[in-house]
Amino acid sequence: MSSAARLLLAALLAAAAVGPCAGAGRVDLWPMPASVARGAQTLLVSRDLKLSTAGSNYSDGRGILREAFQRMVAVVELDHVVNGSYDGRGSPVLAGVRVVVRSPNDELNFGVDESYKLSVPATGNPLYAQIEAQTVFGALHALETFSQLCNFDFNARLIELHSAPWTIMDMPRFHYRGLLIDTSRHYLPVPVIKSVIDSMTFSKLNVLHWHIVDEQSFPLQIPSYPKLWNGAYSYSERYTFDDAIDIVQYAEKRGVNVLAEIDVPGHALSWGVGYPSLWPSATCKEPLDVSNNFTFEVINGILLDFSKIFKFRFVHLGGDEVNTSCWTTTPRIKSWLIQHGMSESDAYRYFVLRAQKIAISHGYDIINWEETFNNFGEKLDRKTVVHNWLGSGVAEKVVTAGLRCIVSNQDKWYLDHLDTTWEGFYMNEPLTNIYNPEQQRLVLGGEVCMWGEHIDASDIQQTIWPRAAAAAERLWTPVEKLAKDAGSVAARLAHFRCLLNQRGVAAAPLAGYGRSAPSEPGSCLKQ
């Protein structure tokens, strides 16, 4: 066992003796809120916990708050039989949660106010916790925080809430806190995607980046070009148009935006299964044919259909890893390049910029992978968000150029890199070497990426968690409250990992690399 592993094991052994609402100074909340104050009183939580919205301006016509409250109660109870008696316990009983939302609007989009205040008093008759939020989406985060204050008492067979009174003030550090899933390399059934969305809410991630298609498969129905999903792996490994709408609506009701991606002009071989004219030739099949107007008609049709499904402000157009050799080895395209006075690199820029204009015409801001910036950053539309992935230092250059940026540097935030430990995820700082406040505001946030070459429905959750949670705290918690040493949060993250397991999320142990199995028999808290 390495020295780092020994230190981690020692921290986890110390954590194993501590309950969910730790005494001795530790607050077991993940991610850590901006401000926390607490007392020493234990409350019992009513078996018939009530939701009150008295004084709220939000009507909850779509049931977002009501359904979130029901889910919160379910994860607190964890399918235990809660049938103990309150008589003679000597502890106050929390009768319900009062939620006051100031805004009547429940439209989810980028930059929505996610702040909240959560108060749990120690006295009152009736005794109610209080949530105040500007929007219903802040209230959803407050309900998640409240759920983490509660635990099941196995002796009393009741739900308890320790350390009242609580006063928690909270808001996210970054507006964009993302997780990428990849349904081209391996198909992910709709229930699996929904389970990932549910698990995201537990650590307050708020953008599901859906890398829908790639060279291997095209699983999504596009009504404008119905043969595109001929590129799916099989008849059953597909998403209908209505499936996509359902996924987006499911996510939105949980405060999660869905960012759709088509990666052009590379990573698009599967498009030509249904429409072979999109290929440069039958023997050289990507990138997409830059010389063919039909290519851009198809992109326009896809984005037109996207605009009916994906209501997020942004669409991702990829643009990475483009090998343009097929354009010069295909005589027809080579002639077109000569006719238009273009080199391969000129044609790459032309393709990306033309695709950007199409996306903007459908009301989207654009996200592109960083190669577009590295090659022709000064030509990118000013609505472009540059998605960093190749390494460090790119975000600094992007914001210096006045463009916005999302950080996903592969050495720290790629979940398919199993040798990257949770400590690396935790310590990865999006604002490294960016000190100007105006430039800092151009960093929208960050994203952990679950590329799908070696994951499918059987192992996606244990590959995502708990490492994604480590990044989630980096993106949510104020920088001054983040740990300077990842080891100091090991016990708290171990507690959260066990909480995920209890909620049915197959989060892997902290010890070892990503997706590691437990090394030996023992408590969840010791792994």
Brief summary:
By secondary structure, the chain is of the alpha/beta class.
In words, what does this structure look like?
The protein is α/β, with parallel strands linked by helices and 527 residues long. The protein has 2 domains: 35-170, Chitobiase/beta-hexosaminidase domain 2-like (Chitobiase, domain 2, 2-Layer Sandwich); 176-503, TIM Barrel (Alpha-Beta Barrel). The protein is built from 18 helices and 16 strands. The strands form 2 sheets. The chain has an 8-stranded mixed β-sheet with strand order 1-8-4-5-3-2-7-6, with helices on one face. Helix 7 runs parallel beside helix 10. The protein starts with a helix and ends in a 25-residue tail after the last helix.
Supply database-style keywords.
Chitobiase, domain 2, TIM Barrel, hydrolase, Beta_hexosaminidase_sua/sub, alpha/beta, glycosidase, signal
Helix content: 25-40%
Shape: elongated
- End-to-end span in angstroms? 13 Å
Number of folding domains? Answer: 2
Secondary-structure content class: alpha/beta
Main sheet strand line-up: 1-8-4-5-3-2-7-6
The radius of gyration over CA amounts to: 25 Å
**CATH H level of the largest domain: which superfamily?**
Glycosidases
Quick one: biggest sheet?
A: 8 strands, mixed
Label the CATH architecture of the largest domain.
Alpha-Beta Barrel
Please give the CATH class of the largest domain.
Alpha Beta
Tally the helices: what do you get? 18
SS elements, strand count: 16
Q: Indicate the mean pLDDT.
A: 95
Tell me the β content.
15-25%
Low-confidence sequence ranges: 1-7, 12-24
The name CATH uses for the topology of the largest domain is TIM Barrel
